Amino acid sequence: MADTYKKLRLAAVQAAPVFLDRDASVEKACRLIREAGENGADLIGFPEGFIPTHPGWFNFLPDVGDEALLMSRELFKNAVEVPGPSTDALCRACRDANIIAVVGINEKISGTTGTMYNTQLFISRSGQILGKHQKMVPTNGERLVHAGGQASTMRAFQTDFGAISGMLCGENSNPLATFALAVHYPVVHVASWPAHFNASYVMQESILVATRGLAYSLKSFVINSCAVVNDELIERYAATAKDRDYLMKAKERAGASIIGPKGQILAEMEPGEGIVYADVDTQDVIIPKLIHDFAGHYNRPDVFQVALTTEDHRLLINVADSRVRDSTPSNLEMAQSERPRLSHDDGLQAEEVPWIAHSNLS
């Protein structure tokens, strides 16, 4: 008997979060998850930074001006810990709705007070956290509040119908990142977007340019989920008449869509808030893959390869192995010379040891 491939209903969210309010944004996300489940959806994708918002103020306000800094502080105070009470609520909603969700969050690490990550959280039908993807390179003003993502989060996740992957905003245009995901053979990819770019770009045009090509390269279905501009954003962000005019026009545009594995548009959202759906047959990825499998037969590993670093890097490493006692320089020596690297022969991870690392040698 031949293998069977499932038919799915995909859902793309086009909505604004409750600005800088984590709990209210989580509640709104849970409502949308349950709504999509009631409408028979199998997988729902959310916009970038949906909880509690994307830091779009950096496109319009002075980076270190009082207003931008105060909003950045509120962003951190309302950021999400994984796991935590916010993720517990999202997981319950997915379990109740029998749906897989990919939710854009601003993530902070428990016990820290300054660093955040631009993250997609992957949640299973049973309400379990499958994992997360952290944006590898924050874009423009995001760099002021977001750190680059850890290498281990550049991956796909297995579900009952195959692998799913995701990337955030501009990294959906990164060809090396696309290839790194292609080797996992994702059936569905979730591309998460903010409410707007800046006045130099029409975001909705960029979304289609980037993700129709992405779908064609991956031979996957792509869910484009994006936030929307509302009156509150305009009032908080628009520093000039030009800004206001741009944001007013952005308010009238729609960006959510679902793309097929040949790069064709399957469904598009009208302006305003809501969810757009598309019914798909997952076997439709096979013929495109038989023609162009960039992770397989339609490539030449003898000619070129992509190397993906999968180890996370830490600023502080506590060295507790006596085998490196004699070879570990003092702090002064390390500060005066090149920082050393431990090799695999040392029996430790081959990663750079910062000069600030502690040595707990017996």
Describe the structure concisely for a colleague.
The chain is an alpha/beta fold and 362 residues long. The protein has helices spanning 22-38, 66-77, 85-97, 175-182, 203-218, 231-237, 241-251, 286-291, 331-336; strands spanning 7-14, 43-45, 100-108, 116-123, 129-134, 157-159, 162-168, 186-193, 221-226, 257-259, 265-268, 274-281. It is 27% helix and 20% strand.
Overview of this protein structure:
This protein is α/β, with parallel strands linked by helices and 362 residues long. It has two domains: 7-291, Carbon-nitrogen hydrolase (Nitrilase/N-carbamoyl-D-aminoacid amidohydrolase, 4-Layer Sandwich), CATH 3.60.110; 314-362, no CATH class. Helix content is 27%, strand content 20%. The protein contains nine helices and twelve strands. The strands form two sheets. It has a six-stranded mixed β-sheet. The protein is globular and about 65 Å long. Residues 331-362 have low confidence and may be disordered.
Summarize the helices and strands and which ones pair or pack.
Elements: E1 7-14, H1 22-38, E2 43-45, H2 66-77, H3 85-97, E3 100-108, E4 116-123, E5 129-134, E6 157-159, E7 162-168, H4 175-182, E8 186-193, H5 203-218, E9 221-226, H6 231-237, H7 241-251, E10 257-259, E11 265-268, E12 274-281, H8 286-291, H9 331-336
Parallel strand pairs: 1-2, 2-3, 7-8, 8-9
Antiparallel strand pairs: 1-12, 3-4, 4-5, 6-7, 9-10, 10-11
Helix pairs in contact: 1-3, 6-7
